[in-house]
């Protein structure tokens, strides 16, 4: 986005608080302070936009900085000025360690907990930067945009009535993956809700659905991820969708929600949503499986039997590999 020059007076013609205006609706919003920042900022912007759940970013380019000529001296001054740097500044030098324990100097971009590190090294007389993605497992931003490929179980045991909370890896050979697969096998009337997260997983989704003969309905943003000409296709569900998938979701004993957030446009009143699945969950023959890249979606709208913190593609690939490793019969109601 173009912006009035940094030297322009306050409330100058065509100036606007664009960064503040865009902050609520973007993953990251920033105005560059020097042409030196531009290549770093753009690298970081693409990193944020594509990391985890894709989303928009906003970079504001003041008019005078668009015409600024970049020199090697400016780069040296920029690096020196950020050593060690203010913790609240966008760019600052930090000390990092490799897996083998060796220390190295890095340029850290972004706010604490949601940044990107660049290793700094000199090639002849020029500085070069190599990106080193920063991951903090304890930060909610990274939990939402860096899926852990884990499965979280939550149900009341039909044997002794005790509540069970457990977790395990999403892996072909893991016990938790087998539990998810066993629940799918037990179900008599399962249905797949394919959301926006399935848009890059059409092939995997098709294999999974056809292997088990499970019908597929899509959300508005998931339309097109499953070929509507196929016999298992139910078309879009929800307030603006078709009646058939809405009825079938309500009557299903197992909901497999892949890449959708249980928006109220598809659930309606949550107290009346999927009663048969909850009844099946109490008897451990069904329930709700929710796959989402964002950990904050876990238990947000409802408490699923299994929450899978992963991408739709990774979940489907793992399930398909598990299906190939075992003899699985198509599910028949």
From TrEMBL:
<dbReference type="InterPro" id="IPR029061">
    <property type="entry name" value="THDP-binding"/>
</dbReference>
<comment type="similarity">
    <text>Belongs to the TPP enzyme family.</text>
</comment>
<dbReference type="GO" id="GO:0030976">
    <property type="term" value="F:thiamine pyrophosphate binding"/>
</dbReference>
<dbReference type="InterPro" id="IPR029035">
    <property type="entry name" value="DHS-like_NAD/FAD-binding_dom"/>
</dbReference>
<feature type="domain" description="Thiamine pyrophosphate enzyme central">
    <location>
        <begin position="178"/>
        <end position="318"/>
    </location>
</feature>
<dbReference type="InterPro" id="IPR012000">
    <property type="entry name" value="Thiamin_PyroP_enz_cen_dom"/>
</dbReference>
<dbReference type="GO" id="GO:0009097">
    <property type="term" value="P:isoleucine biosynthetic process"/>
</dbReference>
<keyword id="KW-0100">Branched-chain amino acid biosynthesis</keyword>
<dbReference type="GO" id="GO:0003984">
    <property type="term" value="F:acetolactate synthase activity"/>
</dbReference>
<comment type="pathway">
    <text>Amino-acid biosynthesis; L-isoleucine biosynthesis; L-isoleucine from 2-oxobutanoate: step 1/4.</text>
</comment>
<dbReference type="GO" id="GO:0050660">
    <property type="term" value="F:flavin adenine dinucleotide binding"/>
</dbReference>
<comment type="pathway">
    <text>Amino-acid biosynthesis; L-valine biosynthesis; L-valine from pyruvate: step 1/4.</text>
</comment>
<dbReference type="GO" id="GO:0000287">
    <property type="term" value="F:magnesium ion binding"/>
</dbReference>
<dbReference type="GO" id="GO:0005739">
    <property type="term" value="C:mitochondrion"/>
</dbReference>
<dbReference type="Pfam" id="PF00205">
    <property type="entry name" value="TPP_enzyme_M"/>
</dbReference>
<dbReference type="GO" id="GO:0005948">
    <property type="term" value="C:acetolactate synthase complex"/>
</dbReference>
<dbReference type="GO" id="GO:0009099">
    <property type="term" value="P:L-valine biosynthetic process"/>
</dbReference>
<keyword id="KW-0786">Thiamine pyrophosphate</keyword>
<protein>
    <recommendedName>
        <fullName>acetolactate synthase</fullName>
        <ecNumber>2.2.1.6</ecNumber>
    </recommendedName>
</protein>
<dbReference type="InterPro" id="IPR045229">
    <property type="entry name" value="TPP_enz"/>
</dbReference>
<keyword id="KW-0028">Amino-acid biosynthesis</keyword>
């Amino acid at each position: 986005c173009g912006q009035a020059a940094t030297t322009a007076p306050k409330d100058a013609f065509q100036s606007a608080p664009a960064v503040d205006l865009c902050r609520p609706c973007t993953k990251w919003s920033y105005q560059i302070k020097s042409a030196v920042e531009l290549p770093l900022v753009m690298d970081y912007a693409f990193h944020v936009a594509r990391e985890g759940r894709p989303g928009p970013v906003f970079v504001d380019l003041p008019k005078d900085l668009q015409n600024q000529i970049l020199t090697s001296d400016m780069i040296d001054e920029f690096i020196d000025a950020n050593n060690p740097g203010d913790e609240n500044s966008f760019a600052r030098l930090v000390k990092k360690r490799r897996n083998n324990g060796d220390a190295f100097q890095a340029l850290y971009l972004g706010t604490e907990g949601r940044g990107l590190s660049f290793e700094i090294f000199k090639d002849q007389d020029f500085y070069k930067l190599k990106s080193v993605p920063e991951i903090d497992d304890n930060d909610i931003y990274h939990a939402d945009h860096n899926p852990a490929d884990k499965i979280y179980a939550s149900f009341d045991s039909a044997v002794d009535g005790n509540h069970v909370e457990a977790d395990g890896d999403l892996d072909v050979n893991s016990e938790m993956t087998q539990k998810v697969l066993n629940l799918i096998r037990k179900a008599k009337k399962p249905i797949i809700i394919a959301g926006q997260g399935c848009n890059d997983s059409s092939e995997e989704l098709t294999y999974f659905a056809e292997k088990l003969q499970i019908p597929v309905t899509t959300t508005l943003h998931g339309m097109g991820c499953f070929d509507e000409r196929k016999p298992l296709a139910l078309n879009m569900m929800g307030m603006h969708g078709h009646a058939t998938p809405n009825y079938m979701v309500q009557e299903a004993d197992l909901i497999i929600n892949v890449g959708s957030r249980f928006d109220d446009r598809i659930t309606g009143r949550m107290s009346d949503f999927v009663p048969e699945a909850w009844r099946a969950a109490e008897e451990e023959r069904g329930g709700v499986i929710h796959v989402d890249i964002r950990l904050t979606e876990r238990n947000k709208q409802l408490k699923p039997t299994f929450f899978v913190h992963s991408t739709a593609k990774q979940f489907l690939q793992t399930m398909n590999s598990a299906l190939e490793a075992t003899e699985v019969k198509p599910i028949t109601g």
